Structures
1.
Amino acid sequence: MTILKEINDIGFKLGFRLKDRLARLILKLKINRKLHVKFLKGIPPMDLAYKREVWAYWNAFTTRFDINWHRFYANQTGVEDKKFIPNDLYFTVILPYMNRMNLSYGLRDKNYIALMFPELAQPRTIVRRVNGEWLDKNYGILDRERSIQFILNEPAIIIKPTLSTGGGSGILFWKSEEGVKSLEKKLDEPGKDLLVQALIDQHESLARLHPASVNTVRVMSFLQHGQVHILSSVLRMGINDSRVDNSQMGGISAGILASGQLKEIAYTKEGYAYDRHPQGGRFEDCIIPNFQDILDLLCAMHARIAHFRLMSWDIAIAKDGSPILVEPNYWRGSIDLHQLSNGPLFGELTDEVLEEVFGKHLHESIKAV
């Protein structure tokens, strides 16, 4: 009986590994297809000297990635850096190594953010729907009719799907003048899991760039050997009166300096550069209020979820300059907006990270490249 159980256990583990490998292969193909179909349009061939430099460096770790990611980043930023992290390698190898992805499936439900980070200010919640059950802001049970009555007391709200979404897809807005029938229809669209919140009144310095969207600070943090490192920070902005700032929905991102001031250039997800916001504002005129305090706060919060060593955080800035946690991202937070704006994702930590992930060490000759 014990032998049969061991055989079953081995079979289950092999099946899981094969399924996981297949999923990663499909994801890799999907990521690289987008690179070749969308991102590389009109981009010249890669400089041969740069290509040799990239392969010489990465050969110490792995060559199982599409080098055209280096071609893309170098062309769009004007910086030929061998340490750019290829997107396909990041999402199929590095991120799964660093983060316990299986634990993210429950935690990524936006309805649980308030339970995970209760001391952080968050958008004011009106009602929730979890697995089809209507709940109030404190997770008390409601019915649909009472939930709708709570919402009808608000002048305007945002409806967010809480599972299996990303990039701003599925988000809906409602104003009281639209009436109850419109509200009921919109509440039915996301399915069994949703979050209804009041709109954020953002700080004037961010609203000046694009008032139609809540423009959020995206911070990427990395937990390594008992220390949280801030890898990169950008401000995500909507354009052309879009209600959301997500890059997948056409938004742009500008890097943030240590002082909180924005860099002079912003990028789309495809790498197109803007030296001014399409609505006219200069990026460098914007300074994020209390920026260092935000970073310190996120470093403290990251230790709470140590199973996820790589985290992306979306932070809105309230009218009074205080931070509002919009969403923590446990998986698949974009890296292109960071590398376009701020260079290689891991910066000075790149060698250390790659050595850990791939279990290899650089030869002195390669370190000198």
Note: Residues 5 and 345 are 44 Å apart (CA to CA).
2.
Amino acid sequence: MRRPNILLVDDEPSIRFGIREYLSGSGFEVAEAATVAQALDTAAKFPADLVLTDFRLPDGDALDLMPKLRARDPGLPIILITGFGTVEMAVKAMQLGADHVYTKPVELPMLVAQIQRLRSSAGQRAAGQNAPAPRTWSLTARPPARLSGQGG
């Protein structure tokens, strides 16, 4: 059975390392990108089942990236993580297609649970069961078992 593919986009190597290691240990195949351009290039080569992206990137932000990913795959689940979360940013991200918005630090077990819910919902939609996408956002602090970083 194929491991689910996740495209992880973050310009901080330590954040990518921590999330990649946790997701890999949770049964996911992870491809990484540090910029919008790298993410688009990787997405063209890597059949991602879900994208996990930081908000601020060196050559743009998630609001630039999400519409381009959605143009390639309208049903692709996208989770946004940010160190600079505001209600306005979360609303705009949701309008552009983010399925969930997390603030850093990210509680990794909760992130994996959200990924599994989104994948299950996407699978049900693909099977014609018309399950609604669980679009939510959270701009609150998280308890232990998390990964923190300074970036955006």
Note: The longest helix spans residues 108-126.
3.
Amino acid sequence: MLLLSLVVILTVPGTAGSAVSSQLNPDKSQTMLNDGHHDARDLASTVQHDRSWESMSSDDLNPQQTEIPPDLFGIVGRDPAYEYASNPFDHANDVNRTFLENKVAEMAEMGVRWMRFEFRAELDEPEGPGRIDWAKHDWFINDLLPRYDIQALGLLGSGVLGDLDDTYMFHRINEEPDSQGRNHYSETFVDRVGQVAERYGSNIAAYEILNEPNNNQVLSWETGGDVEEVDPLIYGRLVIDSYHAIKEASPESQVVAGTMLYHNQDGDHLHLEWLEEVYASTHIEEYYDGEGRYPWDAVSIHPYFLSADGVIEHMHELRDLQSSHGDDQPVWIT
């Protein structure tokens, strides 16, 4: 089974030539752009076209003949939590609803149909994993985005647990796991995933589990550059448990795994080697043997540093790896 991608270069206000990738899949269409508030590496884009591509060759894909789906565009938006108390005159003890409404209205007018943002725990508790201040998210997720027909892609990354308490600093994720692949950090992380999913249900259309776990900047910072990747065995168990927690609370929400950073070193695609180890990890293999599928609805990647042609070529490589493990879930470029 072959994945084909069409890459277009677009520029929107606040961005420099943002790559937009379209992915052929019979179900949905998504593309994400950076809105200028985040680092360019947070550029997120996914598009899926309504046609079968199982027997398609690259010669069949002509960008001049490809119909643009109505929900083509998405944006990596400034996290709504940052707007809490930013306008104390008009919105005391609340998010700046005026700013957020104007922002989302303009996004909708542009044709945006997805927004990616991150959940972050509060950093005001010296002990414990912190808390999610729901007041910073509820109105935005439950009211604002639905009114403008924009779907939420929620990133559950290292910030989902507060790290004032050293016990919950992100590097703890790699502590020795038990026989089931879990440790204290990963169990606490999954508990937090369940809390978010139970609160928002299908108003979060999809969740990504961690951000760039194969080459993570936070891990590198916390370990002085000694460690950059989450242990593939621990990540595999984390995704399984997160998948169960999300699906139990909201069966319609999609779970996106991988979220890999493209990482080429001396010609070796280290991110694909990392994903290979996830596929080969004990608990992922057991899950696949028992369920006949993997505990995710899509695999995502950040193919930064590549040309448009390079992105297309690399999607073939990623798809070949998936296919070698019987994984037919779509690829999202986020």
Note: The chain is about 30% helix and 20% strand.
4.
Amino acid sequence: MVSNFAFEADAQKRRAAQRSVRTRMEPTASLAAQLEMLERELHDPIVRKGSRASELLADDFPEFGRSGRSYSKTQVLEALSSESTEVITSSEYKLNLLSPTVALLTYRSQRKASAETFTLRSSVWRKHGSSWQMVFHQGTPTTVQP
């Protein structure tokens, strides 16, 4: 039978380890700014039509679009290359560091042509060498304004 003292000591060690992991996993302001900048790059019509979009998306990248359809990297790049130059605005960025090399970025976007249509977006970014690549993206339609 385990004594209360041993049980309490184990519980204290677990709590300390959890605090340590939380502290190490908190995103830095500079990483949040970097990933927000990369995300906003993908909203730029020039980037969307050029080779930079391909560099930012991992080869095994999937997207679940706001339409509910699934897209591969190739399908996304084809769609972006023929897309209009509609302005996309985004706000309410939040970063959650899932590991030292994987981060979840969530935000809200709106296309200027669709004044009443907002999309909640989630992107998973993974560090690849010295740079970050998007490995997953999902858009969820919403009409709720901020």
Note: The CA atoms of residues 51 and 109 lie 23 Å apart.
